[in-house]
């Protein structure tokens, strides 16, 4: 069982921070910054888990999640969503689309690692 | 109950009044038609000397006077009723009851308010 | 029967009439007018329509033309049957405007025009004179009948002296009872009562003769009918054209004949009398004509062929030895003639004095009217004498030889020329003075040319050659065959052409003219008489001295009546004495009172001289203007209201849309600010945790992570600064720092500050250096902030392949506009309204680091600087226009 994570996130600094901590933990990390091509990137990279930002250029994270859940190949793929808005409504919306985990920025590095590991394990 | 009755009564009266005015306006038109009937009569033959060229002048005269008398009777009937609703003392002192009554009937033409 | 007896009977009868008139006047003065003014008396007074022409002439007419004579009664009957249409309105107008005659009606309707009054008066005189001659002729003829009927008893009197006596007697009667009072609008109780009595006499006489002929001579209805059918009457063809034309002419004549107008309108006491007259008068006419055919038929079969059928009413009873019946018939004819002549003379005299003599008198003696009352009365008396004199002259001159009926019809057609102007005037507000004058004059001219002048006979006034070849040999202008249409009966011909010319001129003249204010005012008053029976508001704010007015009124009305009027008015105003305030109301009333005596035009002019000095007051103008303005204002108000409503609705929709969008934005405000704050904080937290537990980290990475933390912290600070800035600007706490600065330097600073490296560095900035050479007085730092913001936006959002920004500077007086136009895809219309709101980043995925506060801050700043910023649509890209004052006066603050 591999530990390949795809980061879909447009803030370069955040991407860099996550890449660092995940790589240090032994993950294979790839990243993608554009919302519009994110679904194609997922099917190309075939990650074990996806970290998805809500606010993306080109396409919102919710739309990407809905597409992933509609595709049989990625229906069961664990997806963790990140948002900086952190309102209750956003969480409910993400859960209605079938998100695996919903996390609010800013996060603690430890929390991210634990969540991703548990998502991959299940 | 009794409070509701007068308006109904008045309404009917003013309705009658307007129809009377309509009738009064039609009489001269009708009369003109009656008096234009002579235009349709055949002319007496000018060359005839005796009875054949003549027409029943007495009968024609009788027709005209009968028509005339009928019109007088009809007008009398209508006018006497209208008369009682005209103002007792019409202007110069302006608006009185009768005038108001006319104002209604004269304005938009009574027929609209059937 | 001796001539003396006949004369004495006549004198006794005249005495009887005087007695009735005198008695009625006295009754009236004591207030006992009730039954004098019954509808019956009113109806009977209308019988002056039936003149001697009717009384004698109808039989002659019937014997020549069969049933055609009936048209003369059918026309008026139809008009009375239709009283609700025209007569009622005429009477109402006559009463509310105190009309004194048909000439006054027309003069008053068309702006109190003296000219029209004069024209109508002249036509009336010309049209009536033959008619009066006709009456004189019939009376003298009837005297002659008795002379012939009793051979040897007395010589046939010379006709002319008889006519003089008759004319003189009538003049005396008319003067005595017709000019007692100067107020022509006041009822002539004596005259009216006398003519009502005469109406009864003539009806009674004619019925008596008729009954005698039918039952006494012919032996009942059946035999009479047989005689009629056997007579030559039954061979007379009915002229259909004349039948129609004469019904029309006689009906129209009833409305405009001066004497008929006098009894129908001027003497009318109560509108309700019309209701009675509407059937009673046609009945009277029917009774007057029912025995005409029998009398004619019997007369033609019994009397020698040389007997004048115009006199059958007299000669038939005489032939059967019924002297008393003949005398009664004589009195009937005498009554017909006298009543017509008297009323016609009074009506004409009023018209002549009010519309010809008085205007002349006033214009000749400007400023000092003198004793007008005396002038008026003398004028009227002289006019009565003059009218009768004219009639006599016509009678003598025309030789009295022609048929009665022919003269009557000719004068009818002449008088009827007034009808289009009169009837058109009370129903059509567009009728104007010019149209009325043109119609009446042209119609009268055609009448004179085609009927009146030819009636004297070929070669008498118009030369024979004219009839045969037309004037100057122009064939289609022959008087009795206009436009080459020959073979028409002369009367039908004249009626058709005169009315056609009249109506056409009336319509064209009216349509093309623009009426004077007073005329429009009067038009409205007449046509809408049922709406406002108040007189026109003529006088306001007058400088008239009550005393001057009293002096004038005394001259016209007589001292007592004038003083009563003034004292009554003063009492009404709560003042003692004779001099009321000259309020507009009072002046209106006084004018109407005077109009009753001297006619509307003169009264208006006279009060005008004293009160205002001009004939048409400002108030008149304002009333007319006001009427039009009211309608206009009303519709404008409505228009404005609906405009305002739709404008409000539009604004509301706009506001609603904006509110909805803003509420969506406000709703996401927390999310936005949260996002903007949390994003840098995420990096900071994450990297600081890495740094905290990262022992074996190489120094390069450590250095790098620390730099990121620093940058993100700065980003947070900037955001907080912007928020603070906006808040300060919005609450007006930011002080301005004014200085003089060159626009070129400012823009240069802004372009440099947005940087030519980093994202958006490819943006080409096109500037107009020359135009930018403007010196401003403003807060340079704030303005630079605005420019930086806009240029930075362009760098950030311009999505063209070769992005380019044009900066266009224009001066508009003391203001300056600076346009920033890029060549990107611009901003969608629905977004243009909200871009200046806070946090209105147009898409969630906009470039990082922008909080969407830039343009909101720009707007606040420019508001401070006395300028504005707006989105400029239609420039082929995003375009912002900054408008600035060159020098802000608010700098000191």
Automatic annotation (TrEMBL), chain A:
Out of the domains of life, which is the source?
A: Bacteria
Question: Which ranges of the sequence are coiled-coil?
Answer: none
SUPFAM superfamilies named in the record: CheY-like
Q: Which GO terms describe its biological process?
A: phosphorelay signal transduction system
At the highest ranks, the source species' classification is: Bacteria, Pseudomonadati, Pseudomonadota, Alphaproteobacteria, Rhodobacterales
UniProt keyword annotations, A-Z: Phosphoprotein
Q: Which InterPro entries match?
A: Bact_response_regulator (IPR050595), CheY-like_superfamily (IPR011006), Sig_transdc_resp-reg_receiver (IPR001789)
One Pfam family in the UniProt entry: Response_reg
The reply on keyword Phosphoprotein is yes
Q: Under what name is this protein listed?
A: Response regulator
Q: Which residues carry this modification: 4-aspartylphosphate?
A: 53
Domain (Response regulatory) spans 4-120
From TrEMBL, chain C:
Task: Output the InterPro entries linked to this UniProt entry.
Answer: HATPase_C_sf, HATPase_dom, His_kinase_dom, HisK_dim/P_dom, HisK_dim/P_sf, Na/Glc_symporter_sf, Na/solute_symporter, Sensor_HK_Regulatory
Coiled-coil annotated spans: 635-665
- So what EC number does this one have? 2.7.13.3
Lineage top rank: taxon: Bacteria
Pfam families the UniProt entry points to: HATPase_c, HisKA
Give residue ranges for domain Histidine kinase: 672-888
Where does it reside? Answer: Membrane
Q: Which GO terms describe its cellular component?
A: membrane
Q: Which reaction does it catalyse?
A: ATP + protein L-histidine = ADP + protein N-phospho-L-histidine
Q: Which GO terms describe its molecular function?
A: phosphorelay sensor kinase activity; transmembrane transporter activity
Q: Do the record's keywords include Coiled coil? A: yes
Bilayer topology reads: Multi-pass membrane protein
Keywords of this entry: Coiled coil, Kinase, Membrane, Phosphoprotein, Transferase, Transmembrane, Transmembrane helix, Two-component regulatory system
Task: Name the residues that span the membrane.
Answer: 6-24, 40-63, 69-87, 114-133, 163-179, 199-222, 243-261, 281-299, 340-362, 374-398, 404-428, 435-456
Regarding protein family, the annotation reads: Belongs to the sodium:solute symporter (SSF) (TC 2.A.21) family.
Q: PANTHER family from the xrefs?
A: HISTIDINE KINASE 1, TWO-COMPONENT HISTIDINE KINASE
Name used for this protein in its record: histidine kinase
């Amino acid at each position: 069982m591999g530990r390949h994570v795809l980061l879909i996130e447009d803030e370069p600094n955040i991407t860099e921070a996550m890449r660092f901590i995940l790589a240090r933990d032994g993950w294979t990390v790839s990243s993608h910054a554009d919302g519009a091509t994110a679904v194609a990137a997922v099917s190309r990279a075939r990650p074990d888990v996806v970290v998805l930002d809500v606010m993306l250029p080109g396409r919102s994270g919710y739309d990407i999640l809905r597409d992933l859940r509609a595709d049989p190949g990625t229906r069961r793929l664990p997806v963790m969503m990140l948002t900086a808005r952190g309102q209750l409504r956003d969480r409910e919306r993400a859960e209605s689309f079938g998100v695996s985990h919903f996390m609010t920025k800013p996060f603690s590095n430890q929390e991210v690692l634990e969540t991703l590991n548990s998502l991959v394990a299940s | 109950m009794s409070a509701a009755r007068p308006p109904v009564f008045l309404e009917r009266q003013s309705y009658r009044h307007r129809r009377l005015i309509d009738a009064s306006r039609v009489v001269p038109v009708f009369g003109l038609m009656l008096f234009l009937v002579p235009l349709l009569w055949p002319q007496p033959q000018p060359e005839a000397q005796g009875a054949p060229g003549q027409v029943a002048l007495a009968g024609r005269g009788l027709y005209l006077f009968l028509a005339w008398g009928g019109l007088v009777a009809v007008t009398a009937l209508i006018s006497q009723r209208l008369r009682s609703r005209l103002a007792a003392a019409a202007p110069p002192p302006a608006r009185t009851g009768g005038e108001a009554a006319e104002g209604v009937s004269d304005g938009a033409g009574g027929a609209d308010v059937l | 029967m001796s001539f003396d007896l006949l004369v004495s009977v006549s004198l006794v009868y005249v005495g009887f009439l005087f007695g009735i008139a005198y008695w009625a006047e006295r009754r009236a003065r004591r207030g006992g007018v009730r039954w004098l003014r019954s509808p019956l008396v009113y109806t009977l007074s209308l019988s002056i329509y039936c003149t001697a022409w009717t009384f004698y002439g109808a039989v002659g007419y019937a014997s020549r033309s069969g049933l055609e004579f009936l048209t003369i009664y059918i026309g008026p009957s139809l008009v009375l049957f239709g009283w609700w249409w025209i007569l009622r309105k005429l009477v109402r107008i006559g009463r509310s405007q105190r009309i004194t005659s048909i000439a006054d009606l027309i003069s008053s309707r068309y702006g109190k025009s003296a000219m029209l009054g004069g024209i109508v008066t002249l036509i009336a005189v010309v049209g009536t004179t033959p008619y009066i001659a006709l009456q004189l002729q019939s009376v003298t003829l009837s005297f002659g009948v008795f002379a012939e009927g009793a051979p040897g008893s007395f010589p046939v009197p010379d006709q002319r002296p008889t006519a003089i006596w008759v004319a003189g007697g009538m003049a005396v009667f008319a003067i005595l009872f017709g000019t007692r009072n100067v107020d022509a609008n006041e009822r002539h109780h004596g005259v009216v009562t006398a003519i009502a009595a005469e109406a009864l006499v003539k009806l009674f006489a004619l019925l008596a003769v008729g009954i005698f002929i039918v039952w006494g001579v012919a032996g009942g209805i059946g035999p009479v009918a047989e005689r009629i059918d056997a007579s030559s009457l039954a061979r007379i063809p009915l002229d259909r054209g004349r039948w129609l034309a004469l019904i029309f002419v006689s009906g129209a004549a009833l409305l405009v004949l001066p004497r008929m107008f006098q009894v129908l309108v001027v003497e009318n006491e109560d509108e309700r009398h019309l209701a009675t007259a509407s059937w009673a008068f046609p009945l009277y006419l029917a009774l007057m004509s029912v025995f005409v055919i029998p009398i004619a038929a019997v007369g033609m079969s019994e009397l020698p062929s040389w007997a004048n059928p115009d006199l059958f009413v007299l000669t038939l009873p005489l032939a059967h030895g019924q002297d008393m019946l003949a005398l009664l018939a004589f009195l009937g004819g005498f009554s017909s003639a006298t009543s017509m002549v008297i009323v016609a003379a009074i009506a004409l005299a009023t018209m002549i004095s009010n519309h010809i003599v008085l205007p002349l008198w006033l214009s000749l003696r400007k400023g000092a009217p003198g004793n007008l009352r005396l002038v008026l009365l003398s004028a009227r008396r002289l006019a009565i004498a003059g009218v009768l004199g004219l009639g006599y002259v016509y009678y003598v001159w025309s030789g009295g030889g022609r048929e009665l009926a022919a003269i009557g019809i000719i004068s009818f057609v002449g008088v009827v020329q007034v009808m289009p102007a009169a009837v058109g005037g009370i129903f059509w507000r567009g009728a104007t003075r010019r149209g009325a004058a043109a119609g009446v004059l042209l119609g009268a001219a055609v009448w004179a040319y085609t009927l009146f002048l030819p009636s004297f006979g070929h070669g008498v006034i118009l030369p024979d050659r004219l009839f045969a070849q037309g004037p100057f040999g122009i064939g289609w202008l022959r008087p009795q065959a206009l436009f080459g249409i020959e073979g028409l009966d002369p009367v039908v011909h004249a009626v058709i052409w005169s009315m056609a010319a009249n109506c056409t001129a009336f319509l064209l003249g009216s349509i093309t003219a623009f009426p004077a204010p007073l005329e429009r005012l009067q038009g409205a008053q007449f046509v809408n008489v049922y709406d406002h029976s108040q007189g026109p508001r003529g006088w306001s704010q007058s400088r008239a001295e009550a005393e001057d007015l009293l002096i004038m009124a005394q001259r016209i009305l007589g001292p007592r009546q004038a003083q009563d009027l003034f004292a009554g008015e003063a009492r009404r105003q709560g003042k003692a004495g004779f001099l009321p305030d000259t309020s507009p109301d009072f002046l209106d009333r006084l004018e109407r009172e005077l109009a009753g005596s001297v006619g509307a035009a003169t009264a208006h002019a006279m009060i005008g001289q004293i009160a205002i000095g001009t004939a048409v007051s400002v108030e008149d103008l304002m009333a007319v203007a006001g009427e039009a303005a009211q309608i206009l204002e009303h519709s404008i108000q409505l228009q404005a209201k609906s405009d305002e409503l739709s404008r409000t609705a539009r604004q509301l929709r706009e506001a609603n849309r904006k509110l909805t969008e803003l509420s969506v934005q406000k709703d996401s405000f927390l999310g936005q600010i949260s996002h903007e704050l949390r994003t840098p904080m995420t990096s900071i937290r994450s990297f600081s945790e890495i740094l905290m537990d990262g022992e074996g980290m190489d120094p390069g990475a450590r250095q790098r992570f620390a730099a990121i933390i620093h940058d993100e912290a700065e980003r947070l600070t900037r955001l907080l600064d912007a928020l603070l800035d906006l808040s300060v600007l919005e609450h007006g706490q930011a002080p301005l720092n004014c200085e003089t600065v060159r626009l070129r330097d400012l823009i240069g600073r802004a372009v440099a500050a947005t940087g030519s490296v980093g994202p958006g560095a490819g943006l080409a900035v096109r500037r107009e250096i020359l135009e930018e050479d403007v010196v401003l007085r403003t807060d340079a730092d704030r303005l630079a902030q605005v420019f930086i913001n806009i240029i930075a936006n362009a760098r950030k959002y311009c999505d063209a392949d070769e992005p380019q920004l044009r900066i266009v500077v224009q001066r508009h007086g003391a203001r300056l506009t600076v346009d920033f136009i890029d060549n990107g895809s611009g901003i969608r219309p629905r977004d243009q309204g909200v871009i200046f709101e806070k946090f209105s980043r147009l898409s969630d995925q906009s470039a990082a680091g922008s909080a969407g506060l830039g343009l909101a801050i720009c707007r606040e700043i420019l508001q401070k600087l006395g300028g504005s910023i707006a989105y400029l649509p239609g420039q082929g890209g995003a375009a912002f226009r900054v408008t600035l004052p060159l020098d802000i006066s608010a700098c000191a603050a």
